[in-house]
Amino acid sequence: xxxxxxxxxxxxxxxxxxxxxxxxxxxxxxxxxxxxxxxxxxxxxxxxxxxxxxxxxxxxxxxxxxxxxxxxxxxxxxxxxxxxxxxxxxxxxxxxxxxxxxxxxxxxxxxxxxxxxxxxxxxxxxxxxxxxxxxxxxxxxxxxxxxxxxxxxxxxxxxxxxxxxxxxxxxxxxxxxxxxxxxxxxxxxxxxxxxxxxxxxxxxxxxxxxxxxxxxxxxxxxxxxxxxxxxxxxxxxxxxxxxxxxxxxxxxxxxxxxxxxxxxxxxxxxxxxxxxxxxxxxxxxxxxxxxxxxxxxxxxxxxxxxxxxxxxxxxxxxxxxxxx
Length: 324
What we know:
28% of the residues lie in helices and 27% in strands. The chain has ten helices and 15 strands. Strands 3, 4, 5, 6, 7, 14 and 15 form a seven-stranded mixed β-sheet that branches. A six-stranded parallel β-sheet has the order 10-9-8-11-12-13, with helices on both faces. Strands 1-2 form a two-stranded antiparallel ribbon.
């Protein structure tokens, strides 16, 4: 089978299209014929091996432990391993695995759900990592309640545009922060108000929100807290800035340390734990028309390096997918 692989850490150019043996599902796994795969910042981090914290988390200290890259996927179940009862061959599924940039991939059955009936494989592949992250930020870390006011920073990006839609689905009044080029997109996914950060500072303290979701990863905590009500909640999602060792996670660590001494709840969401139950919640929203993935560009499998380069430029409107 064809797959995107790398044997050393580095820029996207280290990724190569190669022939690989077709994997065999183990206990609790299924073999999937991959039709499409998503592109998210985690792919870049695992390709680069940066920050170094990633290597210490079991992905390989000197070289990548798993040669095939990619996490998000959508496809059809070809075979099931021992102890799998919830899925069967022929099922159309979406979810995550290690190594989705390939014609075939093995995934844990617990990380998969049946594909929403109203989405193509390409659309479904854009959902898992980014939308589950947004769901866990809004529902779990943010504890959002109907009627609350929400500020989504980075509202035109992969996680941000899902966060806007989910906050609206939970009954909130949503303000999205984005660039001029993404304002129409943010309005189209349901934001009640849009703030262009090139013209206006959403965190200057003139407006207060019950929940602030920061998906952009570059504002200091003191600035973000100015946008919160005295008892509001801040959720920092990921982060692309910071040093080589822990990267943007430093703000999340500082938020957790500061939170017990503040009336505001300060939370970080660095690692997304995906389970099929969250995907099933998203499927309900998607099939009801409350959540729809927005795709900026699609790339063929051989052009994954170009797709990752484009993602890291920071101009993506919604999501990027790879067609396989």
